[in-house]
Every structure is written in C-alpha cells, then in structure tokens.
Amino acid sequence: MKALVYQGPGKKALIDHAKPEIKEPTDAIVKMSHTTICGTDLHILKGDLPSCVPGRILGHEGIGVVDSVGAAVTAFKVGDRVMVSCISACGTCEYCRRLMYSHCTTGGWILGNTIDGTQAEFVRTPHANLSLYNIPEGVSDDAMVMLSDILPTAFECGVLNGRIEPGSTVAIVGAGPIGLSALLSAQFYSPAEIIMIDLDDNRLAVAKSLGATAVINSADGKAVEALMKLTNQRGVDTAIEAVGLPATFELCEKLVATGGHLANIGVHGTKVTLHLESLWDRNLMITTRLVDTVSTPMLLRTLVAKRIDPTKLITHHFKLDAILDAYETFGNAAKTKALKVIIEA
C-alpha cells in the first residue's frame, strides 16, 4: 500500500509499505478514504516530538471503511463506514475510567505517533470498539474528517478548559485551523466578544466571516495595546493559545484579565517562560490538555443537526498520490492561504 512515512526531522516520503494486520483481538483494519494533515504533523517533522521515530506512517485523522476486525470487536463489522478518532481508548484502565482517554495506558494519542497512522491506504486502529465512530447519514465526508481531531481538540482544550460563558470575553491567539475551530465551538456559549489575533490578514478575514467580533493583526507588536483598548483596559476572561510558540503563550499571559483563564491548545516543542512575577496575584487558571475526545459524540450530534459547519475551514483537496504537494501547501499557508487540506484515496 502507499503510505506517507516520517524519515527524520525535515524528511518524509510517500512509499510502498506493507498493509497492516490485526495484532490484537480489539483491533480493526480500516481502508482509508479521506485523511488530513494536522499542525502536529508539522511539529513532528520539525523534530519536536521524539516519541515519533523515523519509519513511522504519519496521520491521526480520517474516515474509511472497515476492512477487517479482531475477534473482540463487536461494535463494528466489515463494510461499515467509520471515522477514526485521533485518540485510542481501551475504556477500562485507570485513566479511561477518569475519562482521560488521551492517557489510556494502552492507547491515547498513538496513531501517527508511536504506531503507524492514517496517511496511508490502510490503518490498524487499536481498541476499535471505543475508537471508531459510525458515519451517520447526512453528514459529509469532509465534516467527519474534521471530527477526528480538530473539533474536539479546540472544544475541549480551548473552550471547555477556558470556561467560556455567556457574555464573557475571549481572545484566541492563532487563526489557523485549530484557532478557527475554537472560534466556531466557542459560539455554543454565546460570549459577548471573541477577538482573534494573528499575523495573517487572510486568516483574520476568515475569522471575521466565521463570527469573530474583532480581529487584531499582531505583526506590529502592539496586540496587547489593541486588545486592551477593545476591553477598556481589562483584558479577556479567556485567552486561548492556539499556535504552540513561546511568543504566543507569553502574549496570552498579557491578555488575560484578573480571575481569567488561559487555555493552552498549542503543541510546544521549546520551553516557555511563565511570568509568575506578574501573574502570582492575579487569581488566574492556566490549563494544558491533550484532547480526550469525550466530546466527540456531542459534536457529532451538532454536525447531524447542522449547528456547526467545520467544512468552512477546508481550503484544498488532494489525492493520496499528491500528499507531498499537500504538505507543501499546508506548510506554506501564508503563501497558499491554506487552512485545512483533505487528502482522498
């Protein structure tokens, strides 16, 4: 089969690879029809995640058709159309019982990280009973791909951890796909203001079209001053970091109001300075999280009801044969105006 393989920092290749086989009775093999590229894949390619070693098939999102199942898989059968969750969960370990599926002792975020992932013609999905979802009628393939990771990640790590409430003020730093997904799902809670901050005017225009009440281009280094002017020098109740860089996290530290929440979504590959000299007395809550996908069933219902449309974040489609072009497009978003790219078999 064809597969996109990580070959070390800065290196990747589309190669012929052996088709995966059932290893455990709880496994399923899924023939992929659609996948995508995540910002985390770019972090892997930069060498930020040493858990992903050369030779690994990348990708942790997508949909397809069940090709085979292990003896213990009872929720799915061959031929079912399914979404592959980015998180694999056994459902019985200590962390799963606490609904922290991302830290499942035999699962978690393993696809495209510590085991082969979804950017291939076939993928082995451990703990299939809890880690696959049937695709309902009336929901587009593209929307289901977005439910694999980006929607629950933005909602759980940003919106829920950020404790967004009706009438609150929110700043989202980073208007890429994950930040824009946070923008979409934040509107479930009717905040009074959602201010998007980014360096890219195109992405800020998209944010405005998706419901941002104000946008700030931070290229001039004056984002703090601009936001304070918008909030009467108060700051925001919730600041969401959706980039994964020291500068953007430290920007959030300056934006959040006393008593507020700083919710980190970004994947950080280098150390960040926590300025406790200015934060120690501010009654703040700072949260980090890896998505647990506990919200996936609820988000799926919102897709069925057409209460949210993540396909608005999709800008490009490619065939698997052209996945290297897809990476080039996604990795040069400022030039290509790419947001989310979909890769079809």
The CATH topology name of the largest domain reads: Quinone Oxidoreductase, Chain A, domain 1
Number of helices: 13
**CATH-defined architecture of the largest domain:** Alpha-Beta Complex
Strand fraction equals 15-25%
Query: Rg from C-alpha positions?
Result: 20 Å
Strand element count: 15
What's the CATH first level of the largest domain?
Answer: Alpha Beta
Structural class: alpha/beta
Look at the structure and give the mean pLDDT: 97
Head-to-tail CA distance between termini: 11 Å
Number of domains: 2
Shape: globular
Quick structural overview:
With 345 residues, the protein is of the alpha/beta class. The chain is built from 13 helices and 15 strands.
Write the layout of secondary structure elements.
Elements (H helix, E strand, L loop, with lengths): L1 E5 L5 E5 L11 E9 L2 H8 L15 E8 L11 E4 L9 H4 L24 E4 L2 H4 E3 L6 H7 L2 H11 L8 E5 L3 H10 L6 E6 L2 H9 L4 E4 L5 H8 L5 E6 L4 H10 E9 L11 H4 L5 E3 L8 H9 L9 E6 L3 H9 L1 H4 L3 E5 L1
Parallel strand pairs: 8-9, 8-11, 9-10, 11-12, 12-13, 14-15
Antiparallel strand pairs: 1-2, 3-4, 3-6, 3-15, 4-5, 5-7
Helix pairs in contact: 5-6
Structural commentary:
The protein has helices at 39-46, 94-97, 128-131, 141-147, 150-160, 177-186, 201-209, 223-230, 246-255, 276-279, 296-304, 323-331, 333-336, and strands at residues 2-6, 12-16, 28-36, 62-69, 81-84, 122-125, 132-134, 169-173, 193-198, 214-217, 236-241, 256-264, 285-287, 314-319, 340-344. Strand 9 (193-198), helix 7 and strand 10 form a beta-alpha-beta unit. Helix 5 packs across helix 6. Strands 3, 4, 5, 6, 7, 14 and 15 form a seven-stranded mixed beta sheet that branches. It is α/β, with parallel strands linked by helices.
